[in-house]
Amino acid sequence: MNWRMDGMIRWQKTKPYLMVLPSVVVVLALFMGGFLQGIKRSFTHAQTNTLTGMYYRKLLGDSEFWESLWLTFRISGLTSLMSGLFAILIMCGLFFMLSSRGEEKAIKYRRLLHIPMLFPYIVAAYVIGLLFQQSGFISRLFYSVGLIDTIQAFPVLINDRFGWGIVMAYVWKTVPFMVLMMFPVLLRVQNGWYQAAQTLGASRLRFFIHVVIPMLERTWLLSVFIIFAFTFSAFEIPYFLGVTYPKTLSVLAHHIYTNGDLSDRPLAMAINAILTSITLCLGYISYRAYNKRSIK
User: Fold this and answer.
1) What per-residue confidence (pLDDT) applies to 83?
2) pTM higher than 0.90 for the full model?
3) For a FRET experiment, which of 77, 136, 202, 278 has its CA 20 to 30 Å from that of 168?
4) What's the Rg (C-alpha) of the chain?
5) CB 125 within 8 A of CB 131
6) Kind and range of the H or E element at 72?
7) Which pLDDT does position 256 carry in this prediction?
8) Which domains, from first to last, does the chain contain?
9) Using omega within 30 degrees of 0 as the cis cutoff, is the peptide bond preceding 155 cis?
10) 238-261 burial, b for 16+ CB within 10 Å, e for fewer?
11) How many CA atoms lie within 13 A of 29 on its CB side?
12) CB-based contacts of 10: which residues, under 8 Å, 6+ apart?
């Protein structure tokens, strides 16, 4: 009887892993197969079909590559930090609403915040372009109320070298994702905790800072990394809202692969390999940081 119970317990523990195993195998096979093939092509000479590191040496000595790498880091870093900041502010508002008006009201407002997630990233780029171009809706509104003398006086935020348009589009899309990730943690906060804190003289904001934010910290860190990793290698929004120089690394790789000749394609594969390697390294760092927070 005991061995049957042990078998049942082991089956219950392994059942979830067995159910997702086919999907995991397919995803790993497709991802690792494509990744290893790309690595192989990046080390293979296009004409002689021999192994070489010339494409990586060419990239490391190219100023355009370093400018593209810095632009990619800047856009991903700003997007992650701004999204994280806005998400915390929204969670603060939802907590105030949750503690004063109840769970149903907070859930309704949270659903409104998820509207940007319904739109593809290409649509997000189009919307941000319509709003923030020099001839867009915001500039015409400022001109009509007399805040600027001419439409051309509106700052260049779309197709700018710094990448503000790209950052705005990503923030608009990723903040709802962070709220979606953190809101279940917020629902775990018991009303009795806040009432006990009130008896000790703590305000609602003080309770949020000292109790709720530590609860959200792990999920917040994980969400920030997911956003950074995604925006670091994403293509659509930088392609539509970026400039011709400098390009983000994903756009640069696409440009070399599609507009260059066949001898340049290993160069594009080398850029993709560097992108993937950096993302994996950042993933390892984030994993270690997440585990340290879990231990604490």
Assistant:
1) 93
2) no
3) 278
4) 24
5) no
6) helix 63-101
7) 84
8) 66-295 (1.10.3720.10)
9) no
10) bbbbbbeebbbbbbbbbbbbeeee
11) 6
12) none
Half-sphere exposure of 73 (CA within 13 A, CB side): 9
Contact in structure between 62 and 267 (CB atoms under 8 Å): no
3-state secondary structure 191-206: HHHHHHHHHCCCCHHH
Amino acid (one-letter) located at 81 = L
In the three-class reduction of DSSP (H, G, I as helix; E, B as strand; rest coil), residue 76 is classed as helix
Residue with tokens 């859930």, as numbered in its chain: 107
- Amino acid identity of 74? R
Please tell me what DSSP assigns to residue 157: -
CB 222 within 8 A of CB 238: no
pLDDT tens for each residue of the chain, 296 residues long: 555 556 566 667 776 777 777 877 887 777 777 777 778 887 777 777 777 788 888 888 888 889 999 999 999 999 999 999 999 998 888 887 777 766 666 677 777 777 888 888 888 888 888 888 888 888 888 888 888 888 888 888 888 888 888 999 999 999 998 988 888 888 777 666 666 666 666 677 787 888 788 888 888 888 898 898 888 888 888 988 888 888 888 888 888 888 877 777 888 888 888 888 888 887 777 777 766 655 55
Token pair 């880091």 is at which residue?
73
44 pairs with which residues across the strands? 51
285 alpha-carbon distance from chain centroid: 16
Distance set, CA 250 to CA 5, 59, 123, 254, 284 (Å) = 53, 14, 19, 6, 21
User: How high is the pLDDT of residue 86?
Assistant: 93
How far apart CA 288 and CA 194 sit, in angstroms, is 32
Beta carbons within 10 angstroms of residue 287's beta carbon: 12
